[in-house]
């Protein structure tokens, strides 16, 4: 599963008639299939080629292996059965070499990071419990050992982690602290006399909570704790949060001495994942169990780190664990595509109410209201998929680079993009899956049709791997502080004082404008009202203007913190809605530009044309959703606002005959698409 080959595109010379012209005369699914005939398959293949991105061979491999209905979640299983089943499926994956791509070649893997993220994403079409459980074992536990550990840890744990002889968990969150990781309470106190760390939960709120694998299967935990040590003649000092390998269960599954695990029990979804809690009562582990890539403690208790600044050290450690967040974003994209594909297929067969002069009732996807429900979300799913492909590729490049070539600025931008897209994609998933459920009426609520299960399983994606609100704020802070190094870890008040002290011109867009965007911007008038809204340059300009306006005005508001009369935290908190909007606007602009790039790179004229329409619908519906802001700040006139609403309607009508084509191009294995509500019609 570690392949980065680029299979050739299906064909580059497919031509279809202009979609807009075709669609005006066809509004039923039968018309649509007649319309495309043989060309439809080619169009689907070409769209899929674009959607699949660089690791398309990996996608095809997982497609083939996972095209089995028995991989779908079965809600009739007990909690125990669901957990056992997922563990069995993990063993199958392991036997197929699924996990190797995520680990370096020196440690028994194949070191193809992009392939490993893509493969995990594809599990989202089968069972989200399987994706999460695999993500915990190989991405979080394995990722902590691989990225925070050194040779002694790689030799001891990685091979067994890949083949599942060793099951691990990632114990960061505590009952008292989830988002604020720096405030974790668990302690790891070094005892120089025995050369051990003592892992302890000093308060009830220090209990590790919600930890995947902790309820039942995990035998080891990567425990995040405050490291306390004293060198010779020194007083004990806390050096902040570090990660330690702690054995928690024996081979028979019993808690080890000093460890108390418990089960989180039934949840809102993800039945196959055994989430649990861990309390430590002075548990002793050897000194060597500190994952010591970024800091170490000598036998005599002396602390050392190549990174002097404690904040920078902490954020560097967390930054290396970014893969989990990127996998969660990717899988959320897959889950929304699947729910929308099922709802679209149902919308093409479900009929309600008589059509005048027709014996048959009307296919529900012929109602504008229904088109408006699904098509803008399909368009947004395309946009998210393109942005995800870019993000996965950037992660691959950054993490595959040799340490000598590491680029701190690029790493920070990657972290901000990952935070932004994780929030954007998972919110989109929660929303679109819920809409898909409603779009299938009562049938959508039956588990046999899958969407209700997907909805339960996807819910927590907005929370784990970083709460979405907290992540969106992180994006805004990075943009506003122009990625300055010394702001990471500052309190809200400290950060706002930093912004206030910055020269006005420091708060500017630092990312270089990509060539295709530059060319499009040059083709449109700076005054957006003078340029057609169908002009891609105008569309990008509107997204960019919104972001620039928000960044500028937010910075102005935050500068009030320099007034002696103002409390810095209050200034920050009063502007938090503004700050969050900066983060959202930034991410939506990045998503649009990734979509534009993908269309530009597409070799098939027919696919590019259709993608162009899909991109238009993404833009028009995003503008429509934020019309209040655009009009209030005079970026869009009342007349243009009306044209945007009309435009969404027209684009929905134009794309209606392509609905099946667009969702077929997602390439979801057919055996995983089963829904009796469609098959029985
Ligand atoms: C099913 C599941 C699996 C999990 N698996 C793991 C795991 O394997 N390992 C692990 O370590 N953790 C795991 N977690 C924990 C998860 O990562 C945390 O729940 C998450 O980080 C959020 O932390 P919290 O629950 O403390 O929420 P909080 O941080 O308390 O957030 C509560 C609310 O407060 C808001 N809020 C918080 N801070 C701010 C702010 N500064 N400004 C505005 N609003 C704010 C949030 O937006 C949110 O709405 C899991 C959780 C679940 C539910």
Describe this structure in words.
This protein has 681 residues and is an alpha+beta fold. Helices cover 52% and strands 10% of the residues. Residues 1-5 and 13-35 have low confidence and may be disordered. Flavin-adenine dinucleotide binds at residues 136, 170-173, 178-179, 210-212, 267, 270, 275, 460, 463-464, 467, 469-470.
CATH architecture of the largest domain: Up-down Bundle
Main structural class: alpha+beta
Question: Sheet bearing the most strands, described?
Answer: 6 strands, mixed
CATH class of the largest domain: Mainly Alpha
Point out poorly predicted stretches. 1-5, 13-35
Q: Rg from C-alpha positions?
A: 26 Å
CATH topology of the largest domain: Butyryl-CoA Dehydrogenase, subunit A, domain 3
Shape: globular
- Measured by DSSP, the beta-strand proportion falls in 5-15%
The overall average pLDDT, rounded, is 92
Query: Structurally, how many domains make up the residues?
Result: 3
Straight-line distance between termini: 38 Å
Number of helices: 23
Could you name the CATH homologous superfamily of the largest domain? Answer: Butyryl-CoA Dehydrogenase, subunit A, domain 3
Bound molecules: flavin-adenine dinucleotide
- Secondary structure tally: strands: 13
Helical fraction equals: 40-55%
